[in-house]
């Protein structure tokens, strides 16, 4: 049955097809031509629309975002039912071509993510020293600044030091130009001023030509960190040493440019130094401070603590006081030769006061009130430090007057060296310049050279050419007479003697001639002008001249003369030590007998006989005269023009002048000779007689040198500075004390006036009159609570 049903259906379809063909064949030819034309037109329109639609679809596909959802599960294809297939085939036959359908892509859903904030936006952060940041395209490597967009202050707004990266910055800015008013703020200055400030920071904060306004903006940050942050953050306290060092550096560069900056920075240094309330500050190293219109508080506290403890003021603290006291004026030698002045002041201070000056305990008490420079401190009250009962001894005038005397003494002593350095700026360490200084102030290189000489010399002596000595001390030229004398004095101060004895009038050595250096025990000083010593020098000169007259100064003769000198117990040990050095020099260059004769020619025969007899007395001074000494005396007599046969009579006369028991040789102890007092007295009498005869004969004639004295610059004469506001010393001291704080109680001022021996009411009236005369404003206001006029302080700082 199934087969028959299938055949019937197929036969029906065939009949329909045959019928259609018959109908088509019956259509006229003209109809077919019209249908073909319409078909061609349709195809053309179709192709045109298809090409245009495809051009729009390509970019849509390209812009379509990548599919992010998972792909659907693949399934096996399902075969269509016969009915559906039949209908599709029928429609295909009817339309002959498929109709294109353009499908628009589903647009991608956009993302709405919030962007990150720019770098450094947000709460202000402290940038530590050395950390690099970039703002406005400028790299800042020094740190010590606040950066951010928010750093509130009590009165509203941001701290003026805050570098806000959200603020616009110009492409150019000149920090040498003034582009801001008083109390500037980074956020409020112009974009070009911001660029200038960033450029100044990037340049190391060191250009001295920078306008001080930029220095103040930076200072405001240091002030905030040192006081406000440190009050609640130990990490900020750890920055104190770095901030103090930076303040000192800035003061060196800008302190002289702005009195206002110098005052504010000095006060902040005081705060940092004293915030921890150091005990016994007078025993600690003294920090460096700038000199302002008032003495740094740290110095005042240290001095007050010394007064409370009853301890002497150490030399270094006294030096700081003398140099920083505003009433002290240091003259040119003290400023031009600061290092040498410091050393000399300490030395003279210790010589004058021993361990130090002891200060009285007065009534005026110390208190620090910091006046902040930054507007960021408005709203904060009582920025002060108290120090209990520590007195302010600097209001007293007597102690500082004592220090002024030491200052003047040291300054006068430095004047020759200061003049030399003024004429020879590069010769500070040359021997020619150092000879203008005490040897104890010579630099380390010269001290090492002197130590080398001492090592070579030991406890004895050394001989060398004068040029070798000068070369070892780095002399640049041949020394003049004055400088040679200065060298001898310098060596003597270091316990080194020199022969020839130029300080006693000996001829100056030439560079190639020998000099002898010998050790002199500390504290052993003996005059070379005594008759005994001068006569002994003559004896050695004559003896060496006679000994060398035969062309040879033998070691035996030298040994005899050494023994002779050591036997002269009427001389001091220092005299004998110098005579032995002189004898060593004579061995290298004996005195000329011809020259000695020439010098002795003006004397008559009686004077020459007196000298000859003295020689015999000296030879007999040890109690006996050996045959060798007799032979030497004969030669000396002959050189003096005195008959040699008188030697024996003079020797016997010298022996007869002593007590009978002393006519034989006196036994000597190892420690030295013991001479009879009568013999010593006789020898002394003869010595004085001979010395009177020889006075001036053996002095070398050296023409005095003309010494050019450079006048000190004008204004160098005074040792004290003019009084504040033209006031006298006591009223100036009170004025400076008042300026150290904005507010005082009457009781505090009563104590201060009493310390200065002033009547308070009259003193305040004098201060106000002086302020009105010079600035047309009062110094103070109020009675029970006295307020200092801040406008006056600004005028004084300017």
UniProtKB/TrEMBL annotation:
Pfam families registered for this protein in UniProt: TerB (PF05099), TerB_C (PF15615), TerB_N (PF13208)
Boundaries of every Co-chaperone DjlA N-terminal domain copy: 542-645
Region (Disordered): 59-85
All residue ranges annotated as the TerB N-terminal domain in the record: 128-334
UniProt keywords, alphabetically: Membrane, Transmembrane, Transmembrane helix
Coiled-coil ranges per UniProt: none
InterPro entries: DjlA_N, TerB-C, TerB-like, TerB_N
Keyword Ribosomal protein on entry: no
Stored Gene3D superfamilies: TerB-like
Stretches with biased composition (Basic and acidic residues): 59-76
Domain TerB-C: 661-797
Protein name: Tellurite resistance protein TerB
Source organism of this protein record: Delftia acidovorans (strain DSM 14801 / SPH-1)
């Amino acid at each position: 049955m199934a087969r028959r049903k299938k055949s019937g259906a197929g036969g029906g379809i065939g009949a329909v097809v045959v019928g259609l063909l018959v109908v088509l064949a019956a259509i006229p030819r003209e109809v077919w031509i019209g249908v073909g034309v319409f078909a061609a037109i349709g195809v053309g329109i179709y192709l045109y629309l298809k090409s245009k639609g495809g051009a729009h679809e390509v970019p849509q596909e390209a812009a379509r975002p990548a599919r992010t959802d998972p792909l659907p599960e693949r399934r096996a294809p399902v075969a269509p039912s016969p009915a559906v297939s039949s209908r599709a085939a029928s429609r295909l036959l009817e339309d002959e071509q498929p109709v294109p359908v353009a499908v628009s892509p589903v647009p991608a859903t956009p993302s709405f993510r919030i962007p990150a904030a720019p770098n450094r936006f947000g709460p202000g952060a402290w940038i530590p020293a050395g950390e690099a940041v970039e703002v406005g395209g400028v790299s800042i490597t020094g740190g010590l600044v606040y950066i951010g967009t928010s750093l509130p202050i009590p009165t509203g707004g941001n701290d003026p030091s805050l570098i806000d990266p959200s603020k616009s910055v110009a492409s150019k800015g000149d920090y040498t130009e003034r582009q801001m008013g008083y109390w500037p703020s980074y956020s409020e200055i112009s974009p070009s001023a911001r660029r200038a400030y960033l450029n100044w920071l990037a340049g190391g904060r060191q250009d001295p030509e920078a306008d001080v306004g930029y220095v103040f903006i930076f200072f405001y940050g240091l002030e905030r960190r040192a006081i406000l942050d440190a009050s609640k953050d130990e990490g900020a306290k750890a920055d104190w040493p770095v901030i103090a060092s930076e303040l000192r550096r800035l003061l060196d560069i800008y302190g002289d440019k702005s009195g206002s900056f110098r005052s504010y920075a000095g006060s902040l240094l005081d705060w940092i130094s004293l915030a921890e309330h150091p005990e016994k500050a007078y025993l600690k190293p003294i920090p460096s401070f700038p000199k302002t219109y008032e003495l740094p508080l740290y110095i005042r506290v240290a001095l007050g603590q010394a007064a409370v403890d009853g301890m002497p003021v150490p030399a270094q603290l006294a030096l700081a006081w003398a140099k920083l006291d505003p009433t002290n004026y240091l003259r040119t030698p003290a400023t031009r030769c600061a290092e040498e002045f410091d050393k000399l002041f300490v030395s003279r201070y210790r010589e004058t006061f021993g361990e130090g000056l002891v200060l009285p305990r007065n009534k005026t008490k110390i208190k620090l009130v910091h006046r902040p420079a930054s507007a960021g401190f408005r709203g904060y009250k009582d920025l002060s430090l108290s120090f209990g009962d520590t007195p302010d001894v600097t209001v007293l005038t007597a102690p500082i007057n004592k220090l002024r005397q030491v200052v003047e003494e040291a300054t006068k002593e430095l004047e020759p060296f200061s003049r030399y350095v003024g004429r020879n700026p590069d010769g500070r360490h040359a021997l020619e310049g150092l000879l203008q200084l005490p040897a104890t102030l010579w630099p380390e290189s010269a001290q090492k050279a002197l130590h080398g000489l001492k090592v070579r010399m030991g406890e004895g002596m050394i001989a060398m050419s004068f040029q070798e000595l000068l070369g070892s001390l780095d002399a640049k030229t041949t020394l003049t007479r004055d400088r040679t004398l200065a060298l001898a004095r310098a060596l003597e101060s270091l316990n080194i003697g020199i022969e020839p004895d130029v300080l006693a009038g000996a001829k100056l050595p030439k560079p190639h001639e020998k000099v002898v250096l010998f050790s002199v025990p500390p504290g052993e000083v003996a005059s070379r002008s005594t008759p005994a010593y001068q006569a002994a020098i003559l004896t050695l000169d004559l003896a060496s001249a006679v000994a060398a007259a035969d062309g040879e100064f033998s070691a035996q003769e030298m040994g005899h003369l050494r023994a002779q000198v050591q036997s002269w117990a009427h001389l001091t040990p220092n005299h004998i030590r110098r005579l032995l050095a002189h004898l060593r020099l004579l061995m290298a260059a004996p005195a000329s007998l011809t020259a000695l004769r020439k010098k002795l020619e003006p004397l008559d025969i009686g004077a020459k006989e007196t000298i000859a007899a003295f020689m015999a007395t000296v030879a007999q001074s040890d109690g006996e005269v050996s045959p060798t000494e007799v032979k030497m005396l004969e030669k000396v007599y002959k050189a003096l023009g005195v008959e040699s046969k008188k030697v024996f009579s003079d020797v016997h006369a010298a022996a007869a002048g002593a007590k009978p028991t002393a006519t034989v040789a006196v036994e000597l102890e190892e420690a030295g000779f013991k001479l009879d007092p009568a013999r010593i007295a006789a020898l002394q009498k003869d010595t004085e007689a001979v010395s009177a005869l020889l006075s001036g004969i053996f002095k070398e004639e050296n023409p005095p040198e003309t010494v050019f004295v450079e006048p000190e610059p004008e204004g160098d004469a005074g040792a004290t500075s003019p009084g504040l506001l033209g006031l006298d010393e006591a009223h100036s001291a009170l004025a400076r004390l008042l300026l150290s704080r904005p507010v005082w109680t009457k009781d505090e001022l009563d104590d201060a006036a009493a310390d200065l021996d002033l009547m308070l009411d009259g003193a305040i009236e004098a201060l106000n009159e002086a302020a009105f005369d010079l600035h047309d404003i009062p110094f103070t206001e109020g009675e029970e609570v006295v307020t200092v006029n801040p406008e006056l302080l600004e005028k004084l700082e300017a």
